[in-house]
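Hey, resending since the last one bounced:
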Amino acid sequence: MSGALDGVRVIDFGQYLAGPLAAMLLADQGAEVVRVDPPGGPRWDTPINAVLLRGRRPVILDLHEPTDRDRAASLVASADVVIENFRPGVMDRLGLGPRACLERAPQVVYCSMPGFGHDDPRAGVAAWEGVVMAAGGGYSTQVSAALIPGFDAQPSAPRFSPLPLASVFGAMEAAMAITAALIARDRDGVGQWVEVPLVDALFEASGLRAMSYERNGPQMTDFGSGFYRCADGRWLTFIATWFRHLEWFLDAAGCHGWIDEGVVDFDRLWSDPATVAELHQRMVDLFATRPAAEWERLGRDHGCTIGMLRSTSEWMQEPHAVLSGTLVDTTDPVLGAVRGPGLAVRLSTGPDGPAPPRRAPGSDTDAVLGAPDDRPRRAGPTPSPKPPLDGIRVIDHTRVVAGPTAAKLLGQLGADVIKIDEDPKLSRSASEQPSFHEHLNRAKRSLILDLKDAADRRRFSQLVAGCDVIVENFTIGTAERLGIDEASVRAMAPDVVFLYLNTYGLDGPWAAYRGFAELANITTGITERTCADDDLVSGMSAAMDFPRWPFTDYAAGVLGAFGALLGLFHRGRTGVGPRVETSLVRATALQQILYVLDHAGPCPPEPRGASATGWSPLQRLFATADGWVFVGATPQQVAPAVAALGAPTAELADAIRSRATVECLAALASVGVGGHEVLSLAELMAPGGHADRRGLRLEDHSEHHGTVVMAGPVVRLQRTPMRPGAYPGPFGSDAEAILSEIERRER
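The structure tokens again:
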């Protein structure tokens, strides 16, 4: 089947990870991607290029030569999309920057993905992955105050994570923004410049952890959630967000008597710490009686959110990983048989698998440069500054984080998003709204409908009949029981784009299992890669959530928004609204993209565990005299760096340790070495901090929560900008306006 982006030509100038990954996401959806490499091929020689460079038409051009620059300019003139991820100014000096390209080819969507934005004072810093992660709070253990009880709000030693979240989130946000800009271009015929600084993209990953409240709302209680060591010595996690989840598990374990005895009591678990402690000790003793795999099977069969701690290599051998399409087996011309990430987003109208394997560098140079550009171009009306999804209506029928994030992003791209909840208890006073409501339901209107009530079912049908996108993330089977599954929805709106997100995907033996982002991390290797034994012993929050962000939820949310946009783009050209699918485990495959590759050849070493400080001796965290920095250097830069630091030593670590952070960074910058202080989310979100200076800090006032601070949209669409969206009221607060609109439309 054809991809949603068939007929779209992308020129990929990207190197290393972020740019090529964004181009891969587009190639997997049918775009023709022409990859421009320098003489000698890609600058980054890594096995993961078997995944990153699939689906390309490789071209070799020396952009320092005038003739090849002219050829590159001709490629841009033939393009729909241009991707580059160099430092600001590099492409301008080559005559291939966004302004020059858009003057020459106004139809182009030009996407820049620098480490730091063009108007950021740090634009000239060598933006190695670790440098950007340090600048964006990725290595700090400190979170924003007044949000996460029990987490340390005081500065402490940083902690390295081997996940390249800055590049991965930048790539996903770029793919989303490019597709949105293509939708806007189909409306009015003109492209635009899109900038996605990687340091800014990390704010999407931080999500709730970057929030703060003057007065916090109610917190969830503990229903036995935690990490537990089983009889075979393996670790397993059990997550209970509601009391019924604990009941299901106790029934499965034959321990319902705990409830009958009064040891497990809903009210006491809310109010009595001693009851919580006793429950945890009982759970510790119980899990120690059986092997982890047995507990996992038993719990899953009873609907529990439960999973065994696996390594990435173990996950890659799980049949579900391949049967779900999360991982795919291909043949690479260099590595041979390869298993790696499949489609991050799957459309019912598109291919089931990713783009074809990579080709040799430069193999399509003559064919691409020799082919005339005879594709038709249409002139559009006067360009409009309206957001890309102006006039699009979305029904958000999701829970927790990933689904609501996808819908929120669509709202911030201009859609009218109606959040539907079924529980009348949610209409309680604003003082009792859960703390995540303000962040996840921004840019939405809220309505409560009881789908068991005939009148509300009729209202739901009327809403669906007038919508363009519906977003669902129910456990498989739940929507069918409620009569709001895809088939039922299409009976009301045949051309709707139906976006479905869950934990493990629509296919495979794990598809119907319940789960959360933490469980996806645990079962696919993220947790095992980043945690230490002390984390497991100290509890669930320490092990499951490092860096201390729910990043997998937000990654799946960005992928969901990208998928919905692909569906709308496809519908705009064909009239057919597809089903769109992504999942939390598909998101983990991208986040671990450096490591999710199985082949017969050698694999580069990787840093692991809580003791890791970086990727190599010259790409790691260093202690200064008064803090911490991440330094990215090449071997040739060591001697000049030590000399600039003025220390009587040849060792870079000793030289850095001898200087204060500010002095250290100034000395390193003087010889071109990349470096940045390790910043916390609290510092980044403070008044006058990075988020504030970049226009990413949103501050609102709530009657019950006081001052509420959160991060806003990170993508910069020059002509059709994203909008933060209104601060949400209580659940159901927009009912009168929405129902009045339904009545007017029915007259």
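Residues 165-188 form the longest helix (24 residues).

Sorry for the duplicate.
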